[in-house]
Amino acid sequence: MTATAHTSQSSHPERPGRSDGVCSEFTVFTKIKPGEADALRDVLAELSDASDTERVHAAVRQIGTLHDARHVIFDNDTRFMFASVFDGSWDAYIDDFAKTVVGERFDKVFSHSEGFPGIKDPGVKDWFVAHQAPAGVFVSAYPDLTVQQIYKDHRVEEAFEEVLDTPEFRAVLENPANAELVATPAFQKLLEEASA
After folding, report:
1. Backbone φ and ψ of 19, nearest 5°
2. What is the DSSP string of 92-142?
3. What is the pTM of this model?
4. 50-72: per-residue pLDDT in tens?
5. Exposure b/e, 36-71, CB count within 10 A at least 16 = b
6. 47 closest CA partner among 100, 105, 97, 98
7. Is the pLDDT reported for residue 149 higher than 90?
8. 3-state secondary structure at position 49
9. Which end of the chain is less congested by CB atoms within 10 angstroms, N or C?
């Protein structure tokens, strides 16, 4: 796979944001309701609670397109930023949040932002567009890999590592009958990558 070092406008021109390969960025800036920064901070602390990590990761897997996300309170507790990287269309990304436990979290977080209508409100996409600012530059370390491909690659790598550690595999490598296969550039590359 060849990485691209450019950023482009969203492949969905009706929505703001930049893309690099299959990855798109989403950055929202809001005004925090007066006096609610501490309440927002409490919600963010609750969401980052280690005891709830399993549930969050399950929801992220259910969405299946979210690479990462961050929440930041700034400007002396007057503004809030949510930024993420995702695969696919902007509309599907927002819809996916509304269908999972993440939607409930969005409601808790953004309820402290001025004018937020709620994640299930028909006007929520317009609200996000009004508060979204595209990045000046957006570069992904793996622009050709979707979240689903990364999950699959990880599963395959774990399974392959498991095979590599068996005496049976070692015996196959050392068997003279397999010398021609083991000597091929593709097989050597596979072994090289596995040992890196």
Report:
1. -125, 150
2. HHHHHHHTSHHHHHHHHHHTTBTT---TTSTTHHHHHHHHB---S----SS
3. 0.79
4. 667 787 788 788 888 999 999 99
5. bbeebeebbeeeeeeeeeeebeebbeebebbbeeeb
6. 105
7. yes
8. coil
9. C
